[in-house]
Records
---
Amino acid sequence: MNPDPTSKDGISAMDKASRRLSDLARQLRLHRDDQGSGIGGKNRASVLICIFEGDSGDLRVILTKRASTLSSHSGEVALPGGKRDDADKDDVETALREAREEIGLDPSLVEVVAVLEPFGAKRGIVVIPVVAMLFSKDDFIPVLNPDEVEDIFDAPLEMFLKDENRRDEEREWLGEKYLLHYFDYETDDKKFVIWALTAGILIEAATVIFQRQPSFDERRPKFWRYHADIVA
């Protein structure tokens, strides 16, 4: 194995990466949200926002493309996650369990650092975003569950704050106009579209992590809050 390159200050590139993620983890541990704590287990789901540092030093998030055989949202881009089981003790356990089942992510490889505010989804389901740090991407060897996941890829998290490769569609619900965002992303000659609730969750995560607002008009629908019954 080649030695890790070391800079003039004597700190290796790997150590710097770990330090950056560790500093970010400390920052995010202060960001907890319990607005959805009163919602019953049968009406909630969790998604895992798994962050790691890319080769160029950017923060990246793991995403999946849902299997085309699924009865709902087939072929769409999503974060690893799913509905809460009765055996799950909390939202974090749901997110970690689903990520292991869908993409083979061992929970011991990540550190959960934050739980973001809930989002409302279809049929009154509450979606809880759980943020975790993957400190060593090389230790993660994806094992996809073909019944649920067709593909796995990663994208730069900061992309969801930029007005690049982004388009939007104005919609209306109960007299309220809002924007549905679409992010076009291409990697390894594959094209993906990240949109709707997944895009909304990632905009929120990027806003919290980078501590700045998106460079575009977000106009988020109010019904994405956990007390809503419907999402577009």
---
Amino acid sequence: MKVYLIGAGPGDPGLLTIKARDVLSEADVIVYDYLANSDFLDFAKPGAEIIYVGKKGGDHTLSQEGINALIVEKAKEGKTVARLKGGDPYMFGRGGEEAEELLDAGVPFEEIPGITSAIAGPAYAGIPLTHRDYASSVAFITGHENPDKPDSAHNWEALAKGTSTLVFFMGMKNLPHISEQLIKHGMAPNTPAALVHWGTTTKHRSMASTIEKLPVEGPAQGFTSPSLIVVGGVVNLRERLNWFEQLPLLGKGVVVTRAREQASGMAAQLRKLGANVVQFPTIEITPLADYTAVHDAIRRIAEYEWLIFTSVNGVKHFWLQMAHLGLDTRALGRAKVAAIGPATADILREKGVEPDFIPEKYVAEGVVKGLLERGMNGCKVLLPRALEAREVLPEELRKAGAVVDILPVYETVPAGEKRDTVLKMLEAGELHCVTFGSSSTVDNFFALVEPDIIKKHRATVKLASIGPITAKTLESYGFTPDIQPEDYTIPALVAELEKHL
């Protein structure tokens, strides 16, 4: 029985601490907030209970008293509870109140600090909160104070006349009042001031003005909550140091339709460029129900002159079954190995196998051409692959005189739990591109999202295909891809996205 009050940081998944990640992966219950990046829930162990208690504006899923009672109740059931809060729990996060409630209930707790948005947001906007030429102290202030109450908790004169950088949390609604009070109590109207909206996330943007003009210029430029207000000379550095907003894909919504097991690499590359990535696995890779045929083929591996692997998943599942039989790479004997694509070649190298053939073009037709040049007449070929896949490769090899045994080692099944997310992004104008890594992802995507929905938003949403075969499948649904790399690889596709978006 224990509760961890965890700071999730400001939103960039990379800013979650290692300790926080480890606790999330072990917790029985995760209770999380609106501002906590939902990607962190991917760290949860299978079967963990996940409860959303977020608050947005005046809409409270659960009151603070209800949240306190909930985490106490779950802990007293003997569970390890991770209370995940945006930013840092003790920085305007009411973490102290929750800690006291736990102590009063006799529940042990631990606080895991998070990077507060007050530091990270301005940093991503190019605003250091301290600088020898501008400020040697910082004040963190709630901007949520009711301007109509007779006595303010703030010493406005001290804030206005000090040399500190001022950072206001939750102050957009009261921005005119904050500006008025600072100027009224002695701050120069032309003091630099900035807004940082959704700092560190893919929705991040910022603007700089003066404390006098900010209440008008901020809303005029569409700034709303959640936005930090930063006041002080350090704002002058924003124009020079603003690195995050220079990322080429910042704010661009990109759907990655690859299978869950394959999507993370592409998603990581796109996130480094600033994209708002939605991993939308239209297919899931699953083991077969029966591996008898696979085991038989592995035991007869010496009969084959060529093994052809068309995907990373084919390699993974083939080697898993070799391990199940107590075998390793040595079992391949003299068989030559072909790999379609660099990723497939790389995982073969991890297994200790240097491919004998990697085609220049990573489609079945390119493989056939290269293999035919090596003489396939009479050769016996084993092709480990998905249960359902295109038949071009085995058919062409058979025409050339090869004896081809197709060996299913895994299967794909439809997935699509992010359908609602994609539809909401489309309606909000936040989706800019859908990527397709294979023909099966096209078929499965349009089984989940009707083609007419995409056609409705076609003027603003680009479609990206990894290669010509995938493009042909797109054409069968009435679409011509806007983006397609010359090399049919994920890195090349990402480079094309950067160029076009």
---
Amino acid sequence: MKRDSRLSGVLHILLHMAQHQGPLTSEMLAKAMDTNPVVVRRIMGRLRDKGYVRSEKGHGGGWTLGCDLTAVTLRDIYTALGCPSLLAIGNRTEAPGCLVEQAVNAALNQAFRDAEALLLARLGEVTLATLSADLHHHAADGPLTLDRVHAS
């Protein structure tokens, strides 16, 4: 199963936006993430629908934050993305009538539910402000421009 890195990518974008004065275009954000601007626009549209970002069209337009970093958790962003799968592992289902497979899957299902609940709880404890503060701690020796943070 391929890993879903949308949450990590969106958090990346939001931190860039928090450090930048004024709007950032989809092209600028896509370059920072090494992805396509269409991907950025699709994801940002979901965040705009939840009020986490704003967009302005036309010359000088782009994406800006629309939220207070202290009020938005990583779980909020995860939910805005449509709650993608948290775990890249799953059950074997080749022989659903097999009693052994049923016992194994029942045990694994409970472990998966427990792990997801723990991860969701942790995501609910971390705010965007926490991430921003950590970024500032690591880059205390200068301005946090797009070029500078990606040169490291």
